[in-house]
Specification:
The structure holds two protein chains of two kinds. In chain A, 45% of the residues are buried. In chain A, the strands form three sheets. Chain A has a six-stranded mixed sheet, with helices on both faces. A four-stranded antiparallel sheet of chain A has the order 2-1-4-5, covered by helices on one side. In chain A, helix 3 packs across helix 4. Chain A folds into two domains: 171 residues, Rossmann fold; 69 residues, Alpha-Beta Plaits (2-Layer Sandwich). By secondary structure, chain A is of the alpha/beta class. Chain A has eleven helices and 14 strands. By secondary structure, chain B is mostly helical. The termini of chain B are far apart. Chain B has 20 helices and no strands. Chain B folds into two domains: 198 residues, no CATH class; 276 residues, no CATH class. Helix content of chain B is 76%, strand content 0%. In chain B, helix 3 runs antiparallel to helix 4, helix 6 packs antiparallel against helix 7 and helix 15 crosses helix 19. Classes of the chains: A alpha/beta, B mainly alpha. Chains A and B meet through strand 4, strand 5, helix 2, helix 3 and helix 4 of A and helix 1, helix 2, helix 5 and helix 20 of B.
Amino acid sequence: MNGFPALSVENLTRHFGSTRAVDGVTFTVESGRIAGFIGPNGAGKTTTMRILATLEVPTSGEAHICGFSAVDDPERVRQVVGFMPDHFGVYPYVACWEYLDFFARAYGLRGAERRDAVERTLAYTGIDSVADKPTRALSKGMRQRLSLGRALIHDPSVLILDEPAAGLDPRARIELRRLIRDLADQGKAILVSSHILTELSDIVDEVIVIEQGRLVAAGPMADIRQQLDRSCTIELVVAENPEGAVAWLQERLEVRHVERNGMKIQVVCAEAEEEVDEADVLVELVGAGFRVRRFGVRQETLEDLFLELTEGKLQ
Amino acid sequence: MTANSTSTSASSSQSGKLDSTRLDDWSDWLNPMLVKEMRQVAKSHVFQWTFLLVVVASWFLGLGAIVVCYPAIRYQSFGRSLVALLGCLMVIPLVFLVPGTMFRSMELERREATFELLSLTTLSTRQIVRGKLLSILAMALVLWSVAAPGLVFAYLLGGIDIVEVVSVPVGLFFVCAVASSVAALAGSLARNAVVVTIVALALIVGLFFAAMFCWAVIGETIWDSRLPAGWWSDIGDFAIALAVLIASGASLCVSLAAARWMPPEVDRSSFVRTRLLWVAGAAMMVVATLSYRFPNEIEVPLDLIVWFTCGWFVAGTLLVSERTELSRRIRRRLPASPWRRILVAWRIPGSAGGYVFTVASMAALSATPLLVTWLHDKPGPGVVHSPAVLVGPLLINWIYFSTYLGVVRLMLLFVRRRFFPQAGFLTALLIALVVLSAGTLISGLLLIVVAPFQPTEARLLSLLSWPARWVEIYEAVSSGPFLLTSVPVFHDLTLPATIALALVWILNLPSLVRGLFAETSPLPQAVAQAEEAERAPPPTPDPFAD
């Protein structure tokens, strides 16, 4: 790399008439890292990604890929970025290898280098078995692979993936996740957006959350969690007397909210996760005579973070 | 024996692979879009069926000619009829199907969202559209190659010379290229289903007329009669000039199609302006050849200037409808020095640069007929053709042109500011029509009412009408010797017209200055440093280092 971060966005703004699709967003992604780009519908994710892919120009602010400006130097940016949009364009009569061959030519690869790139991409994305099939005959999963192959054909340093797992079956999703992780291990910086947060949480190194075009949070999940005033959520199932257990817990802990569904109790405490010793609570609860069948502190997921950070406002 | 045959087959397969690899390597020199489109076209059902039908029809025509004319074929020449029939047959695929395929190819690219994928690559939109057009023309060539044996057979039947035989495929190929360029532009206009349907219908009607024209020309020149001897020396230069004009018009269509596909943030007007200059140059070639051919017909250059002004006014409307605010990507490429800005004002994208370009080029292009007439100036009794007589009409025409276009620009800016910020070319065209109609109709109507009572005021009212000036000029031309004093350069209305132009310019000036002297957006420091480092010479190696 040339000393610049693989992907950096500084005070990025994009207006469409009176609508501010992106409003002063700033973040960076280093090489070999996977950043999950999340936000509600209409939050400005796709617009930001399109700016990074040089398909749009920002109203103000800067976007750089490997130090090249997406505003001033789109030609060079296109050589180092691979973008996989949320739709798949089909040339119906073209075979898969011809499709990749065309994009290799379009990226300026020539002769043996081009043929190698096509063969390598076919093998890497696992579509070599259908290389001669026309693209119209491919399944959704195969098309997504081909689309990823198209984004990879020129061996870019930065990959931008917009909803890559949308519409895929579980097996295809797992395989795609594996591919993305492998690409990051090769040193590529990856910015990936998805609505399926459970999918993302397994692979991302950091998250970037935006809402209504504004950056809400950016960084590793643990850092974001620390920045937030995190409360501890205890989940337990008792064999009898759930009312008594709730009353005991309210006495023992500083409870913010309780939710009871039959014998199942969920208690949201005012204290942070680190401040609550769940083992002590369990021992004392059992000591007080309550028959506890299941007990645990709920692990916070990306979905929880997302719900806490965003308000679900649309623009 | 077995080992031998195995090695032979292995070596032949190896040489086959080598050949295909070499062919593949050669294809690297071609436009990638052309390679892809050719692969796609070769597999499409439309092409396969058209190919088959042309083969069958060519056989049918050849054999049919022999069967129908059998006894007479030994002593009569039927070549002319057969070439005409083949030409008429080929009009259908070349003037209907091939441009139709071009339209569909362009329209599908947007509908299937594949165009966005192409925009991600290092291909420019011009390369994309050009590649598509080339593949379509290659398809036309393949179709002609099928009919070629039929043409050879027709030539052997006699009655037609080789120039005429060749002129049919060449002429039809030219029409096919022009129609496909127009279809490319039509395909790029398609944004939604309604527009696609309207544009497609308009294109079908246009292609139908083009086909009728081709059939009529083939009927007139090949079937009915042969071209008169010496036709080439009579009208050859004019034919070439006209062909160049049509070809540059087609090239403009392709450029406009490419510009249509570009995002508005990039400079999409510079190359359109260059193509417009090509068209203007070609049009002036036509003016020059005709002025040369008919030195005493002063109406000829005047007619052409009128037609050319109409076309240039539409082009000007297109250019002034460009955005007023320049994007950052464009502003960062503008020269920093104000003097350089003034020097390249005509090239600066945007509405202001568009206006300057159109007005300046109109002035420059109006000088061409002057130059031609000056070169052919033959003073003497009865000769009315002199550069001096053209100065007046051309000057007054330029004043009206600049004023009307300036008014269109002002009105468009007003509409954008007050009502419709996204107003583009179609709105500008509508405004131009309103301005032209107002200038002609309103003044005409007022003249009818006022003229009987107030002749002086009526004369001033007619100032609005640009077409009225042309009527005056033509009247002056037809009424006898056309002298400098009779042209409206010293006309009593020229001064008010010039004042009107000055007023329009003053009103346009603030937005023109804003557009032409827009602040350049500075390069980000990191990028500037990186570019500086790239430009710096590599460090000299230390000769004493290990």
